[in-house]
Amino acid sequence: xxxxxxxxxxxxxxxxxxxxxxxxxxxxxxxxxxxxxxxxxxxxxxxxxxxxxxxxxxxxxxxxxxxxxxxxxxxxxxxxxxxxxxxxxxxxxxxxxxxxxxxxxxxxxxxxxxxxxxxxxxxxxxxxxxxxxxxxxxxxxxxxxxxxxxxxxxxxxxxxxxxxxxxxxxxxxxxxxxxxxxxxxxxxxxxxxxxxxxxxxxxxxxxxxxxxxxxxxxxxxxxxxxxxxxxxxxxxxxxxxxxxxxxxxxxxxxxxxxxxxxxxxxxxxxxxxxxxxxxxxxxxxxxxxxxxxxxxxxxxxxxxxxxxxxxxxxxxxxxxxxxxxxxxxxxxxxxxxxxxxxxxxxxxxxxxxxxxxxxxxxxxxxxxxxxxxxxxxxxxxxxxxxxxxxxxxxxxxxxxxxxxxxxxxxxxxxxxxxxxxxxxxxxxxxxxxxxxxxxxxxxxxxxxxxxxxx
Length: 454
What we know:
six-stranded mixed sheet; about 45% helix; Rossmann fold; about 450 residues; 16 strands
């Protein structure tokens, strides 16, 4: 398999090369030259590690130890059960896919645990080191840092919006004392963090000299790893490959639901991908109207991991919408930078909706009362919109994105009490924290990376 940039620059590359590179040199995102085809009959009934190896093999065909890496990653010790992603049936035709049983209690662990192992393997084979630069709105940062901590060839520099994450989310990152982990809290929004990361990556000379890589969902390996659980959830919710399902997915940066789009392109019988936003409803507006319009001000909400205006992975989908015309994609993103919006009709297979603070409190309360299930606010956004869009006779699989313990204040507002948390996280917020607060300035990030090399 070879990979192309959505902006058309450079030659097609192999997986191991784009794994370490992250963003393409021309500012685009890597996508595979073609979509492999799923063998549903052969894959149904496989254990999660076996299924992951089958799904990932065509995307990562230059990684000799892929099966061993996958087997070491998806284990009971890391994810709490042999199921890895257990499916809970709330009622006939309504399911919740549990993706938050990893080390940081968020679905990002599903991909980032694998990404850490892939980085280590490729770096060892090439005798290289890597400085990982990323931005987080809450969960990616902690999942990346816990996946990379202590790895000798890797240093992590993670930007997060200062004061805009839950106390639990911030402590998961800032309490890490590993010398290869560096937290930079940006005075601004997640979009500011993401913009700074792109500015640093745009400096080709600095990127090459400092060996900069990415763990955000701009890294194709993140997307590929997330494709696996769409197949897993489908096989557990259906009895035959003739059945079709809908997936409801809370989305901010468009990576999670884009993985569902990839699964469908591979042949998974997905009827509709149901996208849920919070009050920052850029993606909902696009799928309703064809107008992609970033917001000048990003609202701080009670589902903070979705407080995003510029969805990085949306460019990958736009690339497909325009028939893989890289010149058109470049023109659209130039227009976005200039005007803050563009129109791109023709989206299909997606429906969308929005959830507010009151909506998510109501959904949390209703799910707990009706099914005895406790969900976090992001999952509540997905369930709320999923139920609104539910089609008769089609199974609905709602993706869980985090455990409620990460958002205790919102759960308390909904139910009048805080959620339980795993014993290993007791007292987390009281641990010493190590973080540097900076302005949204690429120069400050470059100085931090250079200082760590001294």
